[in-house]
Amino acid sequence: MTGQGRPELRILLVEDEPANRAFVRAILARADPAEIGPVVLHEAASLGEARAALVAERFNAVLVDVRLPDGNGLDLAAELRSGDTGETATVVVVSASVLP
Predict the structure, then answer these.
(1) pLDDT band at 98 (very low <50, low <70, confident <90, very high)
(2) How much is the pTM?
């Protein structure tokens, strides 16, 4: 996606379900690049992959699922919000779970 004069928006999507990752890709593909600028989407299917990505790269936003195969996404969100990781990205918790 290209945006004229806008800085690159780097998003980390932490989601284990392939269909949900495809849904986010589809939403971003339909977004107006003139409004949001160029988008780089990095996908992680687990907390381990997410933590590795956060060490290797900087992100503007982290979209994190709650239920992941190797733990709770809320734990990652708390780590990011505490500032201990050095990451300053906006964190958005997303979940398709309807169970308590």
Answers:
(1) low
(2) 0.86
The rounded distance, in Å, linking the Cα atoms of 49 and 53 is 6
Phi, psi of 25 (to 5 degrees): -60, -45
64 sits in which H/E element: strand 61-65
- Taking the C-alpha atoms of residue 43 and residue 78, their distance in angstroms, rounded to an integer, is 19
Q: Is 86 helix (H, G, I), strand (E, B) or coil?
A: coil
Q: 80-87 long-range CB contacts below 8 Å, 24 or more apart?
A: 80/54, 85/54, 87/54, 87/58, 87/59, 87/62
